[in-house]
Amino acid sequence: MLFDEDTIIAMPSVSVPDAVAATRIFIVEDQPTLRSNLRQLLELEGYAVEEAADGASALHRLAVLAAEAELRPQLVLLDVGLPDMEGYAICRHLRQDSRLQHVPVIFLSGRVELEDRMAGYEAGAEDYIAKPYINAELLSKIGVALRNGQSRQASHELQGQVNHAMQAAFTAMTSASEIGVVLQFMKGSFALQDNTALQQSMLQALQELGLDASIQLRSLRGVSTINAEGPCGQLEIGLIETLARRGHIVDAGRVTVFSYGQLSLAVKNMPREDEERNGRLRDNLAFMAEGAAARLAALDTAWQQRQQAATLAELVACTREALRVVDERFRYQQWASGDIMLRLRESIDRAFVSLGLTEGQEGMIARLVTGAGEEFTQLSEQGVDVEASMKALLKALEASQPLKL
Ligand code: CA
Q1: What is the 238 CA–ligand 1 centroid distance (Å)?
Q2: CB-based burial of residue 29 (10 Å sphere; 0-12 exposed, 13-18 middle, 19+ buried)?
Q3: Of 106, 229, 281, 309, which is most buried, counting CB atoms within 10 Å of its CB?
Q4: Number of Cβ within a 10 Å radius of residue 213
Q5: First-to-last CA distance in the chain?
Q6: Average model confidence (pLDDT) across the chain
Q7: pLDDT tens per residue across span 140-191
Q8: Cα–Cα distance between 396 and 405 in angstroms, integer?
Q9: In angstroms, what is the span from residue 105 Cα to ligand 1's centroid?
């Protein structure tokens, strides 16, 4: 038997929308217990949940929901192993429907090999979560996917038309203009002063080449992975990081990943059917990725120097303040110890009058006091040495600042 009694599609749990419309999540899962657990978890978080237990009913229901903008799910949680089809097929179907193509899809699956995650990525998924999942991790990934989905939707509405027209125009580019785009990018990259500008400029050049690409920068300032539509999904981020460790040019499924230094470029539509153009493009893209990685390394070094200069400036300020405090205390102590010695001598002189000591005894006490006074002075002189070394340290610190801020 292919279907169990649970393959009938469930009715939506929220029929009347709340005053503030809840975020809608569509679950496709054939296991009744798991499906009900997921529903409970998500409803507790305030999401409006709809569910389907197999591929056919999911596709049917999604087609109905797609027709009404306010009913469309904002995220789909998709099981891979369904009784009638693989979840990947549903995901591909969503990506091809212009009304649902920006809805993030998260796969939930017991299969966790690189090939499985790759299949999910190629089908267009945002993320891939292994079963058994941890509730907190699932909710956190749902939150990230929803934010990415919104961001892509907004970006799509703004520039979707422009991108489409541009992509179509540039797909027919000749090899001369192809290398032109690459060189133009390289030339411009030297003037770019930050990572984001570099990433955007590279993305622009890739779009001009008609390529559907994502760029990952793993710089000292953090990892950033974007494509023309905005931030990339967690699944893609993880896959690029994995493939970057495997070599400079790695083909995985339909994707080719170019990695140099701390930069990776993932292209999803290499013209593999056109051997000549594909080969030429591989060379050009490798050249471009290597050049951009070198620029990124230079930007990282400059940033690191600025950080070091800032740290050093802070250190100088702290040392100067410490020195001021030490100096103040030292002067006070000098004054105080001189004062103590003076009063000691006065008290002893007064005591000599009433004690009736012999001249010899008075002389011995006076020598002891003078000796102690000399020790005090020696200690003070050592203090002056400390002060001098601290001033030298401060001078050295100030001189070693690589950049003026
Ligand atoms: Ca299943």
Answers
A1: 23
A2: buried
A3: 106
A4: 23
A5: 74
A6: 85
A7: 999 999 998 888 887 777 665 566 555 555 555 555 578 888 888 988 888 8
A8: 17
A9: 16
Contact criterion met (CB below 8 Å) for 249 and 286: yes
Superfamily of domain 158-303: GAF domain (3.30.450.40)
Rounded to the nearest angstrom, the distance between the alpha carbon of 98 and the centre of ligand 1 is: 27
CA of 31 to the centre of ligand 1 (A): 6
213 CA to centre of ligand 1 in angstroms? 32
Edge-first strand listing for the sheet containing 105-109: 48-52, 24-28, 75-79, 105-109, 127-130
Cα of 66 to ligand 1 centre, how many Å? 24
pLDDT tens digits for range 346-363: 888 888 888 888 888 888
Q: Rounded to an integer, what distance in angstroms lies between the CA atom of residue 197 and that of residue 200?
A: 5
Q: Which of 70, 68, 31 is nearest to 51 (CA)?
A: 31
pTM value?
Answer: 0.62
94 C-alpha to center of ligand 1: Å?
19
pLDDT tens digits, 381-404: 776 677 777 777 778 777 765 544
Residue tagged 């503030």 (tokens)? 20
Distance 79 CA to ligand 1 centre (A): 6
Residue 80 CA to ligand 1 center (angstroms) comes to 6
Domain boundaries, given as residue ranges, for the chain: 2-150, 158-303, 309-399
Ligand 1 centroid, distance to 87 Cα (angstroms)? 9
* Domain 2-150 class, CATH top level: alpha beta
